[in-house]
Amino acid sequence: AGSKLREVFDKINNLLSGKPVQTEGQMVLVTQHPQGLEFVCYKLAEKFVKHGEGEVSFHHDSAFPIAVVLSGIWELHPRVGDIFLAHLHKKCPYAVPFYPARKEGTSMEEYQRILGYEIHDSKVEEQDHFLKRMSGMIRLYAAIIQLRWPYGNKQGAHPHGLSYGWRWLAQMLNLEPLADVTAMLLLDFLEVCGNALMKQYGIQFWKTMFFIQKSYIPRIEAVTSSGQMGCLSRLKNFVQKCLQAQEIPLPKGILTPSFWRT
């Protein structure tokens, strides 16, 4: 509910602002320790990324309430936003976007870690699980860049707004595609913030969509084996439908004005 989200936001904002906050039966103040504020910023940013790779990866709609709170906190406490991006880029280099190359002397295990895979007892996580986590983090990022906390002053610019999403899309399309990963990330990104980018960039956006259909999807196809076609087919269908209708649907789960009255 909107009222619950406001409570969460106020609690985080008060904590970061140095006000006493009641949690688990005790009062907490960031001024109680010289590094208190820095520690809280670090752990909070890390927690938001964990929400992306956990909750959002399983429940796509949850990207929006989490993102709107982070967007508002980022506006008031830029340090949290900076550290959030650092955590996000480390966990999901595709959010940069960047496909790290394997350097000489880097072990396979270490390289897989750099690519974002989780490794426990020398066992690499399943590809499906890896893709799900990356998908959740990209969806959270795509939600953040288009949302603003509705109770802020809105005087300044969004601390990390749609221009970053436009840049991400352009840079993504300049990279050589990877099987599995590229199609999924593009589809996630366009489903979540395609509508907002369409409204902001108009004809330039449609030129980009046309480029994806005519030039980039064939390049993804060229590196994709027959067993990995699922996500690519969904991307193809999505782009084709949008180009035919000249419209990108609003993402599922977007927060409407009526949400804030709940």
Automatic annotation (TrEMBL):
Keywords, ordered alphabetically: Coiled coil, Cytoplasm, mRNA transport, Nuclear pore complex, Nucleus, Protein transport, Translocation, Transport
Predominant location: cytoplasm
Gene Ontology MF terms in the entry: inositol hexakisphosphate binding; phospholipid binding; translation initiation factor binding
InterPro entries named in the record: GLE1, GLE1-like_sf
Keyword Transport recorded: yes
Compartment(s) where it occurs, according to its Swiss-Prot or TrEMBL record: Cytoplasm; Nucleus, Nuclear pore complex
Any Pfam family matching the protein: GLE1
Superkingdom, taxonomy of origin: Eukaryota
GO cellular component, as recorded: cytoplasm; nuclear pore cytoplasmic filaments
GO aspect biological process, one term: poly(A)+ mRNA export from nucleus
Function as written in the Swiss-Prot or TrEMBL entry: Required for the export of mRNAs containing poly(A) tails from the nucleus into the cytoplasm. May be involved in the terminal step of the mRNA transport through the nuclear pore complex (NPC).
Protein's name according to its UniProt entry: mRNA export factor GLE1
